[in-house]
């Protein structure tokens, strides 16, 4: 099972800069879906774990060198843990929370801007503020095609729980904590599982519902 040969730059940017993702798993054989908000870190092909053995011993895992991975941590007494054990096919949704928050704040600021009559009780009633539609129009114009297409991406992958006592577990746990120090609460105790998701395809849609697939 191989990763996409290449991912669009804005998807890679989302993977590298976002702090959270939505992880979708499903039970088996019932296929009952479950969605969780997760801390994660993205592992590019050049950062994939390599065993401490010789290079020749690593040749059997050559396919991993080109893989794109997502690393997460979860407790073993969770629904997502059981789902992954029984059905390793998962989906993740990456969202550009920073851009969305900025846009939301700007829209909120515009909508809350007082009119002249609201600013002073003694001010006479005036005609509707003609500038307000202009500000709204400017905001909409700034939401160009490239910005909208970078808002989110859906990716599918194959998940596996790593051996708690392996060097690979330790390596990816440290990578996760370097990217998300506050994720330490999810890696404490003996009941922790580090999950490695190998991305197998991506679906990207723009504001006009044009969809592209990357396998």
From TrEMBL:
Compositionally biased intervals (Polar residues)? 108-123
Q: Which domain of life does this protein belong to?
A: Eukaryota
Domain (Pyridoxamine 5'-phosphate oxidase N-terminal): residue spans on this chain: 7-102
SUPFAM superfamilies tied to this protein: FMN-binding split barrel
* Gene3D superfamilies in the cross-refs: Electron Transport, Fmn-binding Protein, Chain A
Cellular component, GO, one term: nucleus
Residue span of region Disordered: 108-131
Report the protein name in the record: LALA0S13e00562g1_1
